[in-house]
Amino acid sequence: MRNAWKLAAGSLALALALLSGACTGERARPAPVGTVRIGFITKFPGDFYGKMVAAVKKYDAEHSDVEVIFGQGRTGTDDESAIRFIDSMVAAKVDAIAITPTSPNVRTALDRAVAAGIKIVLIDNDIPGWGGKSTVVATDNRAGGKLAGQWLAAHLVNGGTVAVLQGRLGNPSLDDRVTGMKEGLGDRATVIAETATDCDETKGLNATRDILANHPDVEAIYGACGPPTTGALQAIKAASKQRRVTLVGFDATTAEIAAISAGDQAGSVAQFPAKMGTMGIEAAVAAARGGAVAPTIDTGVEMVTKVNVAKYQ
Question: Do residues 68 and 40 make contact, with C-beta atoms less than 8 angstroms apart?
Answer without folding.
Answer: yes
